[in-house]
Design a protein that fits this description.
CATH topology of the largest domain: Peroxisomal Thiolase, Chain A, domain 1
Largest sheet: 5 strands, mixed
CATH superfamily of the largest domain: Thiolase/Chalcone synthase
Bound molecules: acetyl coenzyme *A
Helix content: 25-40%
CATH architecture of the largest domain: 3-Layer(aba) Sandwich
Number of helices: 10
Shape: globular
Number of domains: 2
Strand content: 25-35%
Order of helices and strands: EEHHEHEHEHEHEEEEEEHEHHHEE
Length: 320
């Protein structure tokens, strides 16, 4: 039996760091409102000439270095993103080209919005367990600032840009212990960006639309349920979880999930205050932060979980 193990992690944030007070100069909001409703204090915003693939490549280079591998060792690239460089080709193939990989390894994108990294990690795990890949680069990268209506205070204060990456390799012990993916397309109207390209025209609104309170209720319920399922199906108990590494959308959603799991806040990796919601990038960014600042140690059990538009959601139990 072979497992997928985390060999290394990396992350990248654009240089431009924007505070709540900076935002309050542009839209009718306040540091007090944003902090109490979401826990967010800062977010990073990509420069005009930065693309999602650029953020992804920086994070990937850090992850490769920490895994002590070179780009040529990678035999599969999966990029989770909702804000790709182009309609096509995939951002993963652009990352492959920018990393200088000439082996012809497969590369593709996964689209599950804020659950994208959980979907991508689960897919990479399946490739490794089935013997179809040995060293997989899994990246979550987003420039959400480009799909926000900067006049809509109910959404523009919530998101940020960034990228996080993980290198998974083969191991004879876990590694990824168990994972579960879920989706329910009936909730499409709660959160979407309805734009399409058709006949040379951009049709529909190219900005994120969200029913905030509706998303909040659904997220708390489904994240608690899928976290329970993954722990139970793996034969683990809640007290064996050393760290919750959640999608960083909103501190109140994270607190509710941690409370449901009986986890103290000192067992939760929290970056939402510094990054905002970076969608598919938020979990690998939090994971890399937790590892680099010494919170997460080798052999500890981590529960990663996330939910996003679709709705799509899931959780992964990992021994780091
Ligand atoms: N600044 C000041 N006031 C604001 C702002 C703002 N940025 N945004 C909204 N308000 C006002 C509203 O206009 C409203 O005013 P009114 O009562 O005069 O009409 C008031 O604040 C309350 O608005 P609500 O939407 O009811 O506020 P709520 O307490 O639900 O908080 C929030 C809104 C933060 C969006 C919350 O619903 C939430 O966190 N939902 C989850 C959304 C989320 O995380 N989405 C991320 C994408 S999906 C994912 O990643 C899981």
């Amino acid at each position: 039996m072979q497992y997928a193990k985390i060999l290394g992690t990396g992350s990248y944030l654009p240089a431009n760091r924007v505070s709540n007070d900076d935002l309050a100069k542009k839209v009718d909001t306040s540091d007090e409102w944003i902090t109490t409703r979401t826990g967010i204090k800062f977010r990073h915003i990509a420069a005009e000439n930065e693309k999602t693939s650029d953020l992804a490549v920086h994070a990937a280079q850090h992850a490769l270095k920490s895994a002590k591998l070179t780009a040529e060792d990678i035999d599969l690239i999966i990029v989770a993103t909702t804000t790709p460089d182009m309609q096509f080709p995939s951002t993963a193939t652009i990352v492959q080209q920018k990393l200088g990989i000439t082996t012809g390894c497969p590369a593709f994108d996964v689209q599950a919005v804020c659950a994208g990294f959980i979907y991508a990690l689960t897919t990479a795990n399946a490739y490794i367990k089935s013997g179809m890949a040995e060293n997989v680069l899994v990246i979550g990268a987003e420039i959400f600032s480009r799909i926000l209506d900067w006049t809509d205070r109910t959404t523009c204060v919530l998101f940020g840009d960034g990228a996080g990456a993980v290198v998974l390799g083969v191991s004879d012990e876990p590694g990824i212990i168990h994972s579960k993916l879920k989706a329910d397309g009936n909730y499409l109207d709660l959160l979407n960006v309805p734009v399409q390209i058709a006949d040379g025209q951009i049709c529909g609104t190219p900005y994120l639309k969200m029913d905030g309170p509706g998303v909040f209720k659904f997220a708390v319920k489904m994240l608690s349920q899928v976290a329970d399922d993954v722990i139970n199906e793996a034969g683990y108990s809640q007290d064996q979880i050393d760290w919750l590494v959640p999608h960083q959308a909103n501190k109140r959603i994270i607190d509710a999930t941690a409370k449901h799991l009986g986890l103290n806040t000192d067992k939760v990796v929290l970056t939402v205050q510094d990054h905002g919601n970076t969608s598919a990038a938020s979990i690998p960014l939090a994971l890399d932060n937790g590892i680099r600042n010494g919170q997460i140690q080798r052999s500890q059990n981590l529960l990663l979980e996330g939910i996003g538009g679709g709705f799509a959601w899931g959780a992964v139990l990992v021994k780091y």
